[in-house]
Design goal:
217 residues; alpha/beta; Rossmann fold; Arc Repressor Mutant, subunit A; 41% helix; elongated
Length: 217
């Protein structure tokens, strides 16, 4: 999952982003509406957490543009006003959900995850391929019934490979899904993660490197 947080209060924006990253969610941050529109124009976000009361380009205008441009991400609008009329106005602009400030962070996470499920095609409850069984809900992995303990990043990488069902997954795609914009695009982090993942999955090897293209199971 990749999320864009749009909030002009930088401390709040960074706090939300840090909390979401702690939930194994890749997060980018925009502190104004113009930057949000720019980022959403070239990155396919699953969810956009959008503050309504933005300076310069108002959150309402950002929401309208995102809807008009058919941006991929579902929109969760944040506002200091929690009145019914305000919520109706926000939803009428095309927002998918609405959350009034102050909010409980656990509720924000739950709403983000719910919107992400709506923005993606439904997945089977359990993924199985090459003797590997991955349960996204329980965050568990086994190979030939042997439990395998993975880090959050390793789990996401393996899940993306299994979703591809034998197709090739590029390193760029894995960077987008498991990390965020702060990662160096020339970093060898995907290769390093793939090496540790292969070691944990054991023999015979199931992850193949397609030179110059990516990886597949």
């Amino acid at each position: 999952m990749r999320v864009l947080v749009v909030e002009d209060e930088e401390i709040l924006a960074d706090t939300i982003a840090e909390g979401l990253r702690g939930e194994a969610i890749a997060v980018d941050v925009a502190y104004d509406g113009a930057d949000a529109l720019y980022r959403a124009g070239y990155i396919d976000y699953d969810v956009i957490v959008l503050d309504r009361d933005l300076p310069a380009v108002h959150g309402d205008d950002v929401c309208r543009r995102l809807v008009q441009d058919r941006a991929s991400g579902r929109i969760l609008m944040l506002t200091a006003a929690g009145e019914v009329d305000e919520r109706i106005d926000g939803l009428s602009l095309g927002a998918d959900d609405y959350l009034a400030k102050p909010f409980v962070f656990a509720e924000l996470v739950a709403r983000v995850r719910a919107l992400a499920r709506r923005s993606s095609p439904p997945l089977p409850p359990v993924l199985e391929l090459a003797g590997i069984r991955l349960d996204p809900r329980r965050r568990s992995v086994t190979r030939d019934e042997r439990p395998i303990a993975l880090t959050k990043k390793e789990f996401i990488v393996l899940e993306e490979l299994m979703r591809a069902d034998g197709g090739v997954v590029s390193a760029e795609h894995l960077l987008d899904k498991a990390w965020d914009e702060h990662i160096d695009p020339f970093s060898n982090i995907v290769r390093v993660t793939m090496a540790t993942l292969r070691k944990k999955l054991g023999d015979p090897p199931v992850i193949t490197t397609v030179t110059g293209v990516g990886y597949r199971i």
